[in-house]
Amino acid sequence: MSILRKIYTFLIDIVETLLLAAAVFLVIYVFLFRPFQVNGDSMYPNFTDKEYILTNIIVLNFKTPQKGEVIVFKAPQDPEKDFIKRVIATPGDKIYIKDGSVFLNGGELNENKYLNSQVKTYAGSFLKEGQEVTVPKENYLVMGDNRAYSSDSREWGFVPKKSIIGESFFVYWPPGKMGIVRSP
C-alpha cells in the first residue's frame, strides 16, 4: 500500500506543478507580455520575417509611446491583424516628408540609430510630399524601418492610442537574434 501512496503523492505533485506553471504562464500572457510574430519585411533590417518578439502590454498603462520605440498595434484596415512599426511622431508633433527626408517639428529627423543613412522616405496617399500634418491627441504616426516596403501611416494615417497593444521589448526567436529591443 505504501508504494501506491508514493505513486499517488508523486502524481499529485506533478499535477500541482503543472497547474502552477499554467497559472503563472496565463498571468504573464494575459497581464504582462504577449508574443508576436513579425510577418513580412516592413521592419527589415532591425526585425526580419518570422522573428518572434515579446510585447510588453502593461507598460502603456504607465507611460505613452515615445519617438523611436517599436510598438505592436491593431492594423487600421483590419483589426484582426497586428502590425509592428516604429513611432515617428507623437501627439502635437508636426511632420512632413520632402525630397526623401522626414521633417519633424521644423527640423530634419535623424534616424541614423535605426536606419541606414542612405534610406529615403517617400510620401504616401495620407502623408503627401511637402504637406505638413499635425498628429492629433491620443494618436501616433508610425513607419516601418524598411520604408520602401512598408504599409504604414504614410498610407493609412494615424494609429489611435486605443489600438496599441504594447511596446516590443525582447526578441526571442531565432536564438541568434535573441536580445533586448533597443530604442534610440
Automatic annotation (TrEMBL):
It comes from the Bacteria. Belongs to the peptidase S26 family. One of its GO terms (cellular component) is membrane. It catalyses: Cleavage of hydrophobic, N-terminal signal or leader sequences from secreted and periplasmic proteins. GO terms for molecular function: serine-type endopeptidase activity; signal peptidase activity. CDD domains: S26_SPase_I. The chain crosses the membrane at residues 7-32. It is a single-pass type II membrane protein. GO terms for biological process: signal peptide processing. Its EC number is 3.4.21.89. Residues 12-173 form the Peptidase S26 domain. It is found in: Membrane. The active site is at residues 42, 85. InterPro entries: LexA/Signal_pep-like_sf (IPR036286), Pept_S26A_signal_pept_1 (IPR000223), Pept_S26A_signal_pept_1_CS (IPR019758), Pept_S26A_signal_pept_1_Lys-AS (IPR019757), Peptidase_S26 (IPR019533). Signal peptide: none annotated. Keywords: Hydrolase, Membrane, Protease, Transmembrane, Transmembrane helix. It holds the Pfam family Peptidase_S26. NCBIfam families: sigpep_I_bact (TIGR02227). This is Signal peptidase I.
